Amino acid sequence: MNSQAPLTLTRVALLLAVASSLLSSPILVAAETVSIGSLLKEMVDRDQVARYPESDYRLKQASSYNRASKTPEDPKGWFNNFDRSTNETHKNYVRVEETRGPKEYVVMEDEGAGAIVRFWVPWKNQLQPGSDVVIRFYLDGASEPAIEGNMFDLFQGKGLVPFPLAHESLRSAVSFFPIPYAKSCKVTMSDHPFFFQFTYREYDDAVAVKTFSIEEFKATKPLIDKTCQKLLNPNASTTGEAVNLNVTVDGGNEKSVSLPARDAAITSLSLKLGSYEDPNVTRHVVLKLSFDDKETVWCPIGEFFGSGIGLNPFQGWYRTVDTDGTMTCRWVMPYRKNAKVSIANLGNEPVEVELSATVGDWNWDSSSMYFHAGWRGQYPVPTRPYSDWNYVTLKGRGVYVGDTLTIMNPVQRWWGEGDEKIFVDGEAFPSIFGTGTEDYYAYSWGGRSTDFYEHPFHAQPFSHKYNKLNRKPKIDEKNTQGFSTETRTRALDTMPFATSLQLDMEVWSWTDCDMGYGVGVYWYGDFETSSNRQPEPMEALNVPKVPKAEFTAEKGKPGGTERAFKNAVEMNPEQVISKPDNIVLRPQNLKRLKLKGSWSLDDQLLFKGAEIGDVVELRVPASSPVAQELTLHATKSRDYGILRFSVNGKPAAANVDFYFGEQATSYGPIVLGAFDPVDDAYLLRVEVVGKNAKSLGSVFGIDCLTLRDSD
């Protein structure tokens, strides 16, 4: 039972579907006992994902989603995005226990047989890696934990669980190592649980499960190592019949090739275009697949292979995009009679295509399913009012196995606070309610996490302007403007459904703007399983353009051309609540001084006469009731000093030298950190702690503070 949210599961429909499957099967074989070993073997068995699970289960998730989200009929609660707990007033977890002495915060609790198959937690401070939280896994009602330790040390690929079964993603830790249990599971944390997600299988009562133990973990070490090697070397078997297609496809046309007409399965499919000079070609060229006279795949190649807009290399377990332009997928795609692969060119210019498919044998039975891939695109997508954007809605029996999201963000500010909401088999409330789009794709602090990353089961092939060939330098840049592509494929966290599945993603940006969305979705299903995703050639041609870099916003002063930094609080004398008498406050218009640099509204507040040891305090009004990130913009010059900053009594930045030997210029951004407001404001304390040996004085000037809600 998932104690995190009200759930309704149509068990009757599920049992009828299972019964129908069993009655139509030629042979009934007892399912293997679920164990660490069986789950690891399943993780790397691509054939098995193309069959409905023998040991039936439903995927559930315990997360720190906001408990005010109860029904779409209450938009204020449904889109409430305070998905974390940082003090006793926040209750985004199950409960608090003190049975073993110190408080333990219960973050997941499940009764019955199951297995944790994915675990994600972020850095608590976006600028400081790691955590000091102790995590404990209590299995089958035991009073002592089966696993205990620092949650990052255990699950970042360098501790208990090796890479890539666990790894440090961008500002978070993710584990895919299976933790099975026969009777129950309870997970606790030693401190207020920040964001978290525990994704787990909930098995039918008839499924036999062997509970995780450290002893079995050690005994399974050879299989663990073998599984890691397979995941890092994902090439599919080349056994089978090769089918090739090398053609030029003119604009508005398509070319096809038929596959062997018999019980068979595609085990590998590769495609390479002659040129990727126009990045939109990966949206304009569409892959179409038909099995047994039914088209089950219609998807632009960018979202099908995970590259997004343009050529963005990465390697995963199911797909690889190489630097030479070859895109490969290793989904097993069975069929009974016939199959056809088609390439449609929706654009105007001809494209050269090299396509290769490997077709192997397949033993078709009642558990076999057809591979599907659909696509949805929309531009513009307004971010206000908040809304849920449907990836896909499926009817019938099947298993959901992954997706690739490409968005166009027209502004710098972070776009991905939206939670996934997944309804299975007619649920009234989603059994999977997430904590943010970046968390769904296994990273965190998305405003800063624009670097490329890859892993067997998820990746960020492109973000802002960075990809595998153009890595983000080690700079404190927080800019998500432009295209971002996020991709996730599922292994042990696939989602079986007996009657239906609906996956929605919240559109939740910090800016009121129009975004572009395009998503490729992948699932297996019976021949009769239907989808609301239909071909959208016009939308595939509607690739949004990225606006010019949005660094500032027009302020609109009468008769002036000044520009204000986005989210800026300008410094003025009224904000100074204490200072020594020797400091004279002097607003300065720097534009008139013809200085080179960039200031908000072209002015600053000069603290003239400041001396070493002086302390100034300013009250800066908050623009949000939640924690905000404060960034300082200032000036450096030949007579400026060395400063120390604090916010609300907490250290923010120390020994910042504002000396500059040439003509005065702007200095910043200087990230002070994220802070909770106190009485709707921030107390900024500035202390003059010294001066550069070359400086002619110790004065200082502050331009503005920019305030952004903490991601």
UniProtKB/TrEMBL annotation:
Coiled coil: none annotated. Residues 1-30 form the signal peptide. Residues 62-82 are annotated as: Disordered. Keywords: Signal. InterPro entries: DUF2961. It comes from the Bacteria. Pfam families: DUF2961 (PF11175). This is DUF2961 domain-containing protein.
